[in-house]
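[Automated response] Your request has been received and processed.

Submitted sequence:
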Amino acid sequence: MAKPVQPVAGITVLRPPGAVEAGRFAQLCSSCGLCAEACPAQCIRMDGVGGVNEMGQPLPAIVARVSPCVVCDELACMKVCPTGALVLVESKMDIHMGAARVELSTCLRGVDASGEDCMLCVTDCPLGDGAIGLDERGNIEVRGGCTGCGVCERVCPTEPASIRVLPTGAG
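Generated structure:
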């Protein structure tokens, strides 16, 4: 039986893009590491932070705050998975690793020390306006096109991050 991922305070752990549901992922993944090797951003880790598979070997995982998925055009990790644990999607917009959540009470939008509005999560998002932008009040708003890649969490200057990704299948 697969060992479940143990949550670590302040660390968002994501399955790679194209990953099947968590339980099935742990059954199918052979821990071959091909996804990590193929990743152009080198964000997929094979160090056990994502739990272990049915054979007790580490599952591939992404730690958003350290090195998020950049939603590459190649969709490289999905293309090399030999077991079906990662399934190639038709479009980057079909990736569902999770969804970002904003804590407006700690967000620096409008209050950063330089006197300029912090919008790093908006400007650095690889998917753009369909995933994140400003609502009618000028606050950061996560939109339906968010894939949960974690770039917003990585670039957020607050500690802990004011924008965090809730992984698919969590809570």
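Summary generated for your ticket: Residues 22-28 form the longest helix (7 residues). Residues 1-7 have pLDDT under 50 and may be disordered.
If you did not submit this request, please reply to this message.
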